Amino acid sequence: MSENNQVAGTVGKDPTLPDVSLILNGVERHLCYDFNAIAQAEIHTGINLLKNITDVSATNLRALLWAALLKENPKLTIEEVGSWISLHKVPAIHNAIITAWFGSLDEPEPKGEDAGE
């Protein structure tokens, strides 16, 4: 298993990336999936996310959340993220994961010359 958790871009600054926020451990975090985050989640869940994002067990929820947070902080460990999950937060986390996932499928807004500027 690769230990390279690096993902490209900056959440909140790259308009092609979705920006879904969630309070975890008292801190506002931002979830975003790019292709590297999807691959990291697949490594940890065994789920082909291009086919199925709805198969959510406790293990999968933790891995999906961790992968979505790598864009903002590539040094997070899956165990650290797991320590932020409590049962009462699961519905909000699941909703944020789904929102970030489907947001990553949107076509980016054109910018620069493509936007007629």
Total of domains: 1
Lateral strand order in the biggest sheet: 1-2
Spatial gap, N to C terminus? 44 Å
Which bin fits the share of residues in helices? 25-40%
Q: Main sheet, how many strands, which sense, barrel?
A: 2 strands, antiparallel
- Contiguous low-pLDDT stretches (5 residues minimum) are 1-8
**How many individual helices?**
4
Please report the total strand number as a whole number.
2
Assembly type: single chain
Q: What is the H-and-E element order?
A: EEHHHH
Overall structural class, as computed from helix and strand content, comes to mainly alpha
Radius of gyration: 14 Å
Task: Describe it.
The chain is mostly helical. It has one domain (20-107). The chain is built from four helices and two strands. The chain has helices at 35-45, 58-69, 78-83, 90-104; strands at 20-24, 27-31. It has a two-stranded antiparallel sheet with strand order 1-2. A hairpin with a 2-residue loop joins β1 (20-24) and β2. α1 (35-45) runs antiparallel to α2 (58-69) and α2 (58-69) crosses α4.
In short:
The protein is mainly alpha-helical and 117 residues long. It has four helices and two strands. The chain has one domain.
